[in-house]
Amino acid sequence: MAADCIFCRNGDNTLQKNEAAYAVLSWSPATPGHFLAVPFDHAESFAQLSGRNLSFLFSLIESTYDVLFERLKSEDDFLAKCYEDLFENPPLHH
Ligand SMILES: [Zn+2]
């Protein structure tokens, strides 16, 4: 964790996390349910992440997609609630 890193200061809007990454809805979504998967490691490029952490990152993307997809199907107001929470508790960098 680095004090000057906007991703380390995300706040409480995490959808899911695992040992190496967390997922959060995009603050300015390109499409409903657009989320970011953010590795905890600080790397300048994707290629700098270890194979282990890449594996955790892809696993998180898959599980977050599954959770969002299921909740979108079963809860009509799921995204509205998520974005309401996000706007009430914005990430610290906005
Ligand atoms: Zn960080």
Folded structure, characterized:
The relative contact order is 0.21. A three-stranded antiparallel sheet has the order 1-2-3. The protein is globular. It starts with 13 loop residues before the first strand and ends in a 6-residue tail after the last helix. It has a single domain, classed as HIT family, subunit A, CATH 3.30.428.10. The longest helix is centred in the middle third of the chain and has 24 residues, at 51-74. The protein has 94 residues and is an alpha+beta fold. It is built from two helices and three strands. A hairpin with a 3-residue loop joins strand 1 and strand 2. The structure holds zinc ion (ZN). Zinc ion (ZN) is lined by residues 2, 5, 7-8, 42. Zinc ion (ZN) binds next to loops.
Task: Give the SSE layout.
Elements: E1 14-17, E2 21-25, E3 35-39, H1 51-74, H2 78-88
Bound molecules: zinc ion.
Residues 2, 5, 7-8, 42 line the site of zinc ion.
How would you summarize this macromolecular structure in one to three sentences?
The protein has 94 residues and is an alpha+beta fold.
Descriptors:
alpha+beta, 94 residues, three-stranded antiparallel sheet, 2 helices, HIT family, subunit A, 3 strands, binds zinc ion
Note the main sheet. Answer: 3 strands, antiparallel
Helical residues, percent: 25-40%
Q: Total domains, how many?
A: 1
Number of helices: 2
